[in-house]
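ARCHIVE RECORD
Type: protein–small molecule complex
Small molecule: pyridoxal-5'-phosphate
Source of inputs: curated submission
Record status: active
Notes field left blank by submitter.
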Amino acid sequence: MTHSPIWHPFTQHGLNEPIPRVTHGEGAALFTADGRRIVDAISSWWVTTHGHRHPRIAAAIAEQAQRLDQIIFAGWTHDPAEEVARELTRIMPPSLTRVFFSDSGSTSVEVALKMALGYWLHRGEPRHRILVMANSYHGDTIGTMSVGARGPYNAAYEPLLFDVGTLPFPAVGAEQVTLDALEAACAEKPAALIVEPLVLGAGGMLIYPARVLREMAVICARHGVLFIADEVMTGWGRTGTLLACEQAGVVPDLLCLSKGLTGGSLPLAVTVAAEPIFEAHYAADRARMFFHSSSYTANPIACAAAAANLAIWREEPVLERIATLAGRQRERLERVAATAPVHNARALGTIAAVELGAADGAYLNPIGPALAAFFRARDLLVRPMGNTVYVMPPYCIDEADLDRVWDAIGAAARHFAEPGPAAS
Ligand SMILES: *Cc1c(COP(=O)(O)O)cnc(C)c1O
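STRUCTURE (tokenized, with ligand):
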């Protein structure tokens, strides 16, 4: 092996784990330089919705690359961005009227937080406290780590993270504790609440009821606290509906979308804002403009990919495909839960998760790398979080590939099961 100078994300190079080299992808499969076909059971970290190298998205990218590759977006515009913004405002709740582009999920959250603070400042009522839910994940920048769960992954940066109000996760039977905590926290006039609707992804695929999401939105509205929905993972059908918020009848003030926005093909994000937030920044006074941009804001090629994704949603039976996949996932989840030593089997839409063995779910649980190796050896891209194994495949995955994934999860559960008292 020649030495690579690449420093990979979320990778401990000191463990010398193999880093497979991928040459191409198609549908739910990835192909490696050494000739293996890998089933992508986690949609390449939750981004690939319709499958790798979707022909319509690939064609839109190729065509746009021949036309206009990049243009400053402050004071300039272009067709692909206009099309994406128009189509987004058509399919999103009508009160979400303003589309702000950026280039990653983290950035879309940073933008939402900055818009929330700008809103309060320009109303002459400065507020800055942000409420969050325990176990949340909103990104890896300093601001998004501040509103996310604290743990080994951000311990080194903790002194730089800003203080937030943390609500307990609405665990089964303790939902009212979360709602009471929100009610109490709202009395202190926070600027906003930010939540991952229905599923906390990186926190361990923790699912909570739509009723709780709805109640949280009602409490925020009653206190005039802005409601920020981070649908970076849950958006684009992951939970069974276009947005997870739909299932709770919730319309946020600020909505963050990324991952599946381009079908998972290119980096792009949007923060969609309700009119009063735009209005608060609207004036003849340049000091009140929204001070945010990144170089690749609304990159035309990425926008063309997003426009193709939106066309796929408009013209193809995407929600039906999702419903079919959700049913197939649930069948296999139930089978594994009935026949293998797993617990906390849970599913929502295309997402399904189980916990293996009696080990705890801490991120640095040593079972993690062993499990990853187990799946890698079986040509499966599955990336457990601690002892939590989840499946979140592209919507085009077929039954045979899904069987391979779930059979391996059952086998892993048996392989890593801790011997009970009788067996030891
Ligand atoms: C992945 C994710 C982010 C961060 O998105 P990036 O594109 O990786 O910066 C933010 N919020 C949620 C809920 C996510 O799952």
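CURATOR ANNOTATION: The chain has two domains: 13-53+317-416, 55-315.
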